[in-house]
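Protocol step 4 of 6.
Sequence for LAQU0S04e04412g1_1 (Lachancea quebecensis) entered exactly as in the expression construct, tag removed. Do not edit the line below.
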Amino acid sequence: MPQEQDQNFSSSADFLETFKQLQEGEKTAEKLETMLDKLEGKLEELLSQADAVSQNPSEKSTGPKPKSRDGA
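Step 5 output, structure tokens:
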């Protein structure tokens, strides 16, 4: 009987360790999902900006022209 108890304890400890690892994996997966969602949002923003620029190439620079140094 003591061997059965040792095996049960060992398998319970293994189960607990596996469960802890699974929880850590789930947390890591959630963090990665959040990071990927942020990256996807940034990529969509960049793509929409690039699309807007390609549709209106004449509006690349709407700021004032720089003045020359000699005052002319």
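Step 6, annotate. The chain has a mean pLDDT of 82.
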